[in-house]
Design goal:
α2 runs parallel beside α6, α2 packs across α9 and α3 crosses α9. The chain starts with a helix and ends in a 16-residue tail after the last helix. The strands form 3 sheets. Strands 1, 2, 8, 9, 10, 11, 17 and 18 form an 8-stranded mixed beta sheet that branches. It has an 8-stranded mixed beta sheet with strand order 5-6-4-13-14-15-12-16. It has 416 residues and is α/β, with parallel strands linked by helices. Bound molecules: flavin-adenine dinucleotide (FAD). Flavin-adenine dinucleotide (FAD) binds next to α2 and β12.
Amino acid sequence: MRYSALRILREGLTGNKGWKPVWREPEPKAEYDIVIVGGGGHGLATAYYLAKEFGHKNIAVLEKGWLGSGNIGRNTTIIRSNYMLPGNEPFYEMSLKLWEGLEQDFNYNAMVSQRSILNLYHSDAQRDAFVRRANAMMLAGADAEIADADQLRAELPFLDFDNARFPIKGGLFQRRGGTVRHDAVAWGYARGADARGVDIIQNCEVTGFDIENGHCTGMQTSRGAIRAKKVAVCVAGSSGRVMEKAGMRLPIESHVLQAFVTEGLKPVIPGVITFGAGHFYVSQSDKGGLVFGGDIDGYNSYAQRGNLPVVEDVAEGGMAIMPMIGRARLLRSWGGIMDMSMDGSPFIDKTHVDGLYFNGGWCYGGFKATPASGFCYAHLLARDEPHPVAAQMRLDRFMSGNLIDEKGVGNQPNLH
Ligand SMILES: Cc1cc2nc3c(=O)[nH]c(=O)nc-3n(C[C@H](O)[C@H](O)[C@H](O)COP(=O)(O)OP(=O)(O)OC[C@H]3O[C@@H](n4cnc5c(N)ncnc54)[C@H](O)[C@@H]3O)c2cc1C
């Protein structure tokens, strides 16, 4: 069923009796060509592009919970491509371009809103670093704009420009950045994949892999054994636990990241704003709530909830750039499990086990990557060679020394 304004009108006039379930609930088959483990944004996008762009039909996505139960339904919805390194920037710019055409592509309203992202700077040295990043972005075909304090005062008068510790001296805008309704992304990709014959199987946990003579032939699940020619793991915060079942230890740690939403307020924040002297980022949802977050909790955990010290830390970051946020009442907060890689960049790669592939290490930036990650993982699975923009996202980069350390902080997950 195609969604359109005409369809809404027709259904409205006929008692809304014609709507169909957005995806089927099939029983798992005994064998597939490709099985994707993990029905988050990246797993569903991979299935969608495999079916749509690479012509594969015999695919399943196995999800241990329900679609949207992981980070795809827990993030703060920010999309952007304001990276600097050649291993990252072309990939994220490809993702942003895919976001720009996504709703038409999968015929689903994901509320893609290019309302801009602004990274504030607070010192001359930080301005120079942002100018360098802006130049790298433009060289990769992205948009970037440096604004000084006077320009920001005119656009965002509520910011605390004269804060004694962290005066705002300007910022780096990416006007094409913004927000997207996160769980609609999962639903849209699921719907598009299902329509092309992909079996999406919820409540199906992968509990082990069948590996014979270095070759993965399938997996054990909570709903029985399933054979597959290729197995593509894509489980974000559960990467360590799942790949351990294949005997692999990853350069990834799992940490909690929290998010917060205030009561609904009148429109005040036009786009996304990030603090440059601490970790705090904020946007305003269409319902009016201020949506914000900051640092990971900083200890290893698989719990989808965080602790109070980070709540205080994030609130301090907010107060430093916009003291009026102290008047807003916090409505709710939650946590997700982050797959923090040791250089802050992801992996889309084959493993040393034939037929077993891995996608993970997205840290807290994997939502914006969803379309490009799905596309590049599908490319790898279909052609057995990496997509050019993801060619550096290899598992062996810690052995070769070709790290993609965007911030230059080394193996410190809390600093990436
Ligand atoms: C609070 C918060 C804020 C964030 N903000 C942003 C942001 O603003 N911008 C941004 O770009 N990124 C953000 N992120 C990061 C982003 O959400 C993640 O990097 C991204 O969603 C991870 O990919 P995914 O959607 O595939 O993960 P998930 O949705 O977590 O998908 C993985 C799935 O695998 C399933 N699974 C696990 N184990 C198994 C198993 N054994 N068998 C079967 N299935 C299994 C899980 O149930 C889960 O559904 C944020 C994350 C959090 C938590």
